[in-house]
Predict the structure.
Amino acid sequence: MSTLVVGSGFVGRAVAARLLRTGEKAVLASRTPPPENDGPPPPWSPLDVTDPDAVRRTLDTTDAERIVLVHGPSDVTWIEARPEAAMRAHAGAARTVLDAAGERRIVFISTDNVFDGTVEAPDETTPPRPANAYGRAKLAAERILAEGPATTVLRVSLVYGWEPPETTKWLNYFSSCVHRLRAGERVTAPSDQWTTPVLVEDVAAVTTAVLAASGAPLLHLGGPERISRADWARLIARESGLPPDRVVAEPRAHGRYASRPANTCLAAPLLATHPATAGVPVRGVRDGTRLLLGRAAPPEAP
Ligand SMILES: NC(=O)c1ccc[n+]([C@@H]2O[C@H](COP(=O)([O-])OP(=O)(O)OC[C@H]3O[C@@H](n4cnc5c(N)ncnc54)[C@H](OP(=O)(O)O)[C@@H]3O)[C@@H](O)[C@H]2O)c1
């Protein structure tokens, strides 16, 4: 089975790597090639997913039988200033891909930002109600793709994983916290913005399991532990042997997370019962943090 993974970013690369490791064919696609900092990159094809001709051509040339849609943009602040561009990139691309896909299986990686954060941990039955432009664009794309004959919308909570310190711009909160704390910087984080973080390797494992199955139009994937960003940063400091008072807690409304819902959390009851995903482990943030820090070099002296 060959899979076209649209989006060569943090999550897309992990999904393609997992497919290749398990003996499947996978091709990444995006406008610019992925960086080569994780060893040899997976096969890659240039694609602007908002271009209908390019989407049709890419599906033909890659012989893709399945599609994972995991492209950007996803920067909440950037999107809030450019809602129309985000709507084109998500809802526009969803229509384009659905029209070109025929009977192909599609897995769309969506977000907890389709909820406004007033429910602590929404499950698949909670009515979505986005409070920001990012959530509105992703929800519009979900609804278009749900018209397809073989779509699963997989809503994923905050994804984290290891990125090396020399990376020019860390793509995830965990890596940014670790490297800044190790460099002796203070990390300012909200004490009232809650997430259910999930390891990127677990996201890749669940996505590939879902891709191989059918029959679940909508699934949530959140980690089993809910934690505030400030508490997570303190956990990272403690587990790194660094003073937790390098973390400065502030109210969400005062900082860069002001446009995020108070809760970007997901409850995922169906994952445990869906035949494709029931045996796939999803680690909590404490285990995941310790696991990643065990992989890393020991922290430098403060
Ligand atoms: N990371 C998370 O915590 C998280 C959680 C839940 C859901 N998600 C979803 O997962 C998706 C990817 O997240 P990520 O963290 O992997 O993002 P990322 O690292 O920023 O990667 C986004 C990728 O999308 C590509 N892209 C953007 N516009 C494109 C276009 N028009 N055509 C083709 N490719 C395009 C980008 O490359 P170019 O710009 O070079 O094209 C890049 O390779 C997002 O849609 C987000 O909603 C992420």
